[in-house]
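For practice. Supply one:
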Amino acid sequence: MAASGHYSCVVTTLPHLLLLASQSSDWVAPFAEARVNPDITDMKLLCADDESAFQRIVERYQQRILAYCLRITGKRVDAQDIGQDVFLTLWLQRKRYREEGKLHLYLLKIARLRSLALLKKRRSRTRLAEKVRKEDTSRHASLSLSLEKDHLHLAISKISVQHRDILTLRHFEELSLEEIQTLTGLRIGTIKSRLHRGLVALRKEIDDVE
């Protein structure tokens, strides 16, 4: 009976405690709705032709897309042109957008396709024909710390497109192997191989720049 009386006291007191807690400035309702991803909210508004939502998305991702395009193309003018094209495409195809993944991956996919298409047209660009040198990739763990950004961009621009593509997605966009697989359609084994060979090639270019 004593245990039953104690339980009754707790039940009686609980509503009072909740009332006091709700009056506190630090109160957070236990069943409050989870914070909505701003990308989801803005894309719904964008599909309804809301220009302010489009502007927010551009401001949220334009620097990231520009940086990605610059690393792939190696030219700021080209990167800016592609960046504008990415967001123009988003606006024109807003009605066809489906929430099947992260918005930044959707934008990166457009940027990647545009960047690779541009590089295909640059037939006059000189390519390195030397054989990939074998060396321990552990030396490359802090390669970005040993160079100024301009030198790094120059070194990256000289390695093959397929290696530059994967290196940029992995080490600059910080995508997981699974996300790179989703974005490119490549097998995980192929991605790992290109990462390894890309790092070896990049190390050689870095040595030449230094």
